[in-house]
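Researcher: Here's my situation. A collaborator sent me these components and asked whether they could plausibly form a single complex. I don't have experimental data yet, so a predicted model of the whole assembly would be a useful starting point for our discussion.
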Amino acid sequence: RPKPTPTYRMPPPYVPP
Amino acid sequence: GAPPNHSFLSAAVDHPWERATTPTKVPYYINHQTETTHWDHPKMTELMNSLSELNEVRFSAYRTALKLRTVQKRMCLDLVTVNRAIDAFDSHGLRAQNDKVLDVTDMISVLKTIYDQLANENPSLVTVPLCLDLAVNWLLNVYDSQRTGQIRVLSFKVGIVLLCKGHLEQKYRYLFRLMADPSRLVDQRKLGLLLHDCIQIPRQLGEVASFGGSNIEPSVRSCFEQAGNSTTTIEAVQFLSWLEREPQSMVWLPVLHRVAASEA
């Protein structure tokens, strides 16, 4: 049961190239 | 001087993935196929998912050790000796700087020193951009899950040395030296800081409950009680004799060493 990375802060949103 | 050029790390991923960094230089990964972004490198996600097959192992210390052995080998830390890691720390001026804060650029510079040397000796085993990126990813997951982009030097050193190759007692002695004052003594607060950084490693694998949970105060007390002195500090020999009894909060480390030895 590996704990998912507790990402309280989301990475920057997707921006199409 | 100009910041070191870490563009070589863009090679850590292949299409449709792209590596990018936040304003605070924290790496993140863009999947142009699914149009999503992730803190974890795709290989880190694969690695963490692969660990779930070990959940059948009943004994928690053994289960955690098997998981850590997989993580350790994926980042080639099983090839990095404790001495090599310490030399790299020293060459980057990190000696006696426990409370100093490292940003991701600093971490990459130190890890690059380690992995470049390793790749020279094991060219077929070590892919520097990937190993380095996974190591940064792992350390941030363990010590900076909020992705502030900063880790204390103590955490950085503990996180690397615990997964390095070396004798158990060598690691214990180094951990004690990290905390000891000029008269080679460690008080309860310092031991607490050390054990807190150590327990984050099994915690990152979701296994902390088996090792007494995130609160390490009972572990600190047990060490000082075993030392049997009402004084407020311990010496290295007392720290070692406590660890030899494999206290619950640290038992995953000697078991990891036994797993590694059993493979030899």
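Model: Some features of this prediction you could bring to your collaborator: Chain A touches chain B through 16 residues (CB under 8 Å). The mean pLDDT of chain A is 77.
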